[in-house]
Write a structure and sequence with these properties.
Chain lengths: 256, 328
């Protein structure tokens, strides 16, 4: 088994009196698609925001390749190789595809000490990324506001790839998509893992999860209640883990 | 594919709103020429352009602020304070070159103060600058001691009321300022970041944009442009009155909104601002010449703002057209 890229230990997150996450331990490995499942409000989004540097954890630690890290901002997390595609896609609808892909990490040349954008180079790079992903977007100059949901996901994935991410986190990437677009995004997810990326995927669609995930982790009420290899579990078990009907979850929730 | 190439990203390319403004300007000129025998002459054209100088400079800064989702309602009084500094230097027979530096310098300093309140202090821009407006207004009273600065020496005027290669200095400075702001907005990371912040501050933060730096810089740039406006103001009028700049913020915001910049941020047009300023000044000048008292000018401006925003709210535009127009 490969060494984990990221290890989360005892992660907790409180918002005032509300405990959104408690005691989460998790290992994320390169080349593996890990699916996070759980009911609404289970803490999935909060957990990945901690990984992404968008929320500082209230407790616990993160290790990347064995070394403890503390992220003050999404920029820090990106510098450590973590790219996150948030549920509320952090794309700027008023900017073009190419601009979005490079936003915050633009290619620039200095003229009299002033940084100017290398627009042609950014456009070319995005063009080839879009082709590599087979994203069916022809014009990197188009404003993101004019794209469909699936195309926006592809842009967000491009952005992650362009950051040379080692870990790509996707929060419900297929939630708003039609069937054909969902297929494409799932294929992209597998392609990312094929390139040696670690992938964390949040989804509500269990069949979809079984289609792409190597490992399945279930969250309930801010806690991790189960971890299974996809090959060693099935649809019914996962459902019972999510709803809390599974004996393991009952036992766990009794002790807490 | 639904992706549509955005129209016009060159310096002079024009979108629909900008063409309409140009037509509105020409139409206003024609109507006023018919309505008043004093209207159509070269002298009056020069007057209108002359009256537009300060507002053009302030408007460029206001465009950046609104595009970022910010605003500065104290900007007119900032011009007033910078003008007082320039006036004091000239009044003490100081070098006109020192006076030349004083405007942008005071503007930059006051821009820092505004940024400290709004950006570092996290006070919403509309409220923060309204508070500063109160403070600055009293400062103007205190500094002027209830009297105008008047009869200032003409040293600064002599320096700026000249031409270079046949082009008046104010026109050159405005062209240069326009070019610099355009480049910053459309060709540097700063401009992208500013538009991203205007679109959504939270998304910009998640994208790893240096929010504080970009917002701080923008208030300082607006301050510098306003300081340059103050320099031209003093050079032209050679006095500073108590009410200086009292309608500048209203006028600037009106012109910028007329020009197609979104009051909600994320979308702006520098060319639109220039045309918006010209239309505003043409209307104000023309109404004066057909006998409408100048007291009515702010009414016209106010009605224009409300009209444009009302029209935009009412016309249910498709998102696509909105974003197509975002860049020109
Ligand atoms: N920024 C926040 N402030 C306060 N409470 C929050 C915040 N973000 C999430 N929560 C709360 O944390 C809990 C977990 O939410 P979330 O992580 O979004 O769940 P999920 O993504 O699994 O549906 C919910 O009760 C939610 O209301
Ligand atoms: Mg969620």
């Amino acid at each position: 088994m490969t060494a984990p890229f990221l290890v989360a230990r005892n992660i907790a997150k409180r918002f005032g009196a509300l405990t959104a996450l408690a005691d989460v331990d998790l290992e994320i490995r390169p080349g593996e698609v890990l699916a996070l499942l759980g009911d609404n409000g289970a803490g999935k989004s909060t957990f990945i925001k901690v990984l992404a540097g968008a929320h500082p954890p209230s407790d616990g630690e993160l290790l990347i390749e064995g070394k403890a890290v503390a992220f003050a901002s999404p920029k820090d997390a990106a510098a450590s190789g973590i790219a996150t595609i948030f549920q509320e896609l952090a794309l700027s609808e008023n900017l073009s595809i190419a601009e979005n892909v490079f936003l915050g990490r633009e290619l620039k040349r200095s003229i009299f000490g002033i940084p100017f954008l290398k627009r042609a180079e950014m456009r070319q790079r995005v063009d080839s990324l879009l082709q590599e992903l087979d994203a069916h977007i022809s014009d990197p100059e188009a404003p993101v506001g004019s794209l469909s949901g699936g195309q926006r996901q592809a842009v967000a994935i491009c952005r992650a790839l362009n950051l040379n991410a080692r870990l790509v986190i996707m929060d419900e990437p297929t939630a708003a998509l039609a069937v054909a677009e969902t297929r494409k995004v799932l294929a992209l997810t597998r392609r990312l893992a094929g390139r040696g990326c670690a992938v964390v995927l949040i989804s509500h669609n269990i069949s979809e999860v079984f289609e792409v995930a190597d490992r399945i982790v279930v969250f309930r009420r801010g806690r991790k209640v189960a971890e299974r290899l996809a090959a060693e579990t099935n649809h019914e078990e996962v459902v019972s883990l999510i709803t809390g009907a599974h004996p393991d979850v009952r036992a766990l929730e009794k002790t807490n | 594919m639904s992706a549509v190439r955005q129209s016009g990203t060159g310096v002079f390319s024009m979108n629909g709103r900008e063409w309409s403004l140009l037509v509105a300007c020409l139409l206003a000129v024609v109507i006023f020429s018919v309505a008043s025998p004093h209207y159509a002459n070269p002298g009056n054209a020069v007057t209108v352009l002359r009256n537009s100088v300060e507002l053009l400079l302030i408007g460029l800064g206001m465009t950046l602020l609104l595009a970022m989702g910010g605003i500065d309602v104290s900007i007119g009084i900032v011009m007033g304070l910078a003008a007082i500094a320039i006036g004091r230097i000239l009044g003490a027979d100081g070098s006109p070159f020192v006076a030349l530096v004083a405007g942008p310098l005071v503007g930059a300093l006051l821009g820092c103060v505004t940024a400290a309140v709004v950006v570092l202090g996290r006070v919403p821009a509309i409220v923060g600058t309204l508070g500063l407006l109160g403070v600055y207004r009293t400062a103007v009273f205190a500094l002027l001691g209830g009297q105008w600065l008047s009869g200032l020496p003409s040293s600064l005027t002599d320096l700026l009321a000249t031409t270079v290669l046949g082009i008046p200095v104010p026109a050159l400075v405005i062209a240069l300022a326009y070019l610099i702001v355009w480049l910053a907005l459309r060709r540097t990371p700063y401009g992208l970041h500013l538009l991203a912040i205007g679109n959504s501050e939270e998304k910009a933060r998640l994208s790893g944009i240096p929010l504080i730096k970009v917002r701080f810089m923008t208030f300082v740039i607006s301050g510098v442009l306003t300081g340059i406006a103050a320099t031209f103001y003093v050079a032209t009028y050679r006095n500073v009155e108590m009410s200086i700049g009292s309608t500048s913020a209203l006028d600037a915001i009106a012109a910028v909104i007329l020009g197609g910049t979104s009051i909600l941020g994320g979308r702006c047009s520098l060319l639109g601002t220039v045309l918006g300023v010209l239309l505003l000044r043409i209307l104000q000048n023309g109404l004066l010449l057909i006998g409408v008292p100048s007291l009515w000018q702010p009414v016209v401006t106010g009605v224009l703002i409300i009209g444009v925003l009302g029209f935009e709210a009412a016309s249910n535009r498709l998102p696509l057209t909105r974003f197509q127009r975002a860049r020109a």
